[in-house]
Specification:
Order of helices and strands: HHHHHHHH
Helix content: 55-70%
Distance between the termini: 49 Å
Oligomer: single chain
Number of helices: 8
Radius of gyration: 19 Å
Number of strands: 0
């Protein structure tokens, strides 16, 4: 792919075992090793999903972006738990939801610009298989719009629901 060919690993043939070893070695060398996270299982699951599901799926089906978004939404939860937060709490869920939803507008914009490169590389990204761009635009718009209430919920948890009338009203119904 033209826009990534200068990346360090682009000249090396891809192999899942090499990728796994590289990620573990890089994490250990940089001091961000899996052992530093309170939730080691989350870090390991992220690696397994990324290497075992997301990476092979990129060449097989356009749902790869959804799997990649799950993988991308996990690191904030790892950071939250490493800093002492609970794994299953609203803050971790809202952090994760924010990154999950943000990835679609972000990635689809990039993939739309470089869709010819992705196609040449054999990657089945949605902008590549969606010839008219309607599905890509629809998913981008839905996820971008969903970011609004998620962001408002995050803010409302910090400053109080009473300062955001609509969210306060919805929360009062709960």
């Amino acid at each position: 792919i033209r826009h990534t060919r200068a990346h360090m690993l682009c000249g090396i043939p891809y192999h899942a075992v090499f990728s796994f070893i590289f990620v573990l070695a890089f994490a250990s060398i940089t001091g961000v090793g899996i052992e530093l996270y309170r939730r080691k299982q989350i870090a390991l699951a992220t690696l397994v999903i990324y290497i075992g599901v997301y990476t092979p799926l990129k060449r097989r089906h356009n749902l790869n972006t959804w799997v990649g978004a799950v993988v991308g939404a996990i690191p904030p939860v790892m950071g939250w738990t490493a800093a002492g937060g609970e794994l299953l709490c609203a803050e971790a869920g809202l952090l994760s939801a924010t990154l999950f939803l943000w990835q679609f507008p972000h990635f689809f914009a990039i993939a739309s610009i470089y869709k010819d490169d992705y196609k040449r590389g054999g990657f089945k990204m949605l902008p590549v298989v969606d010839t008219h761009g309607l599905r890509t635009a629809h998913q981008t718009l839905i996820c971008a719009m969903a970011l609004i209430p998620v962001s408002l919920l995050r803010v409302s948890r910090e400053i109080g629901l009473q300062h955001i009338p609509f969210i306060g009203y919805v929360a009062a119904l709960d």
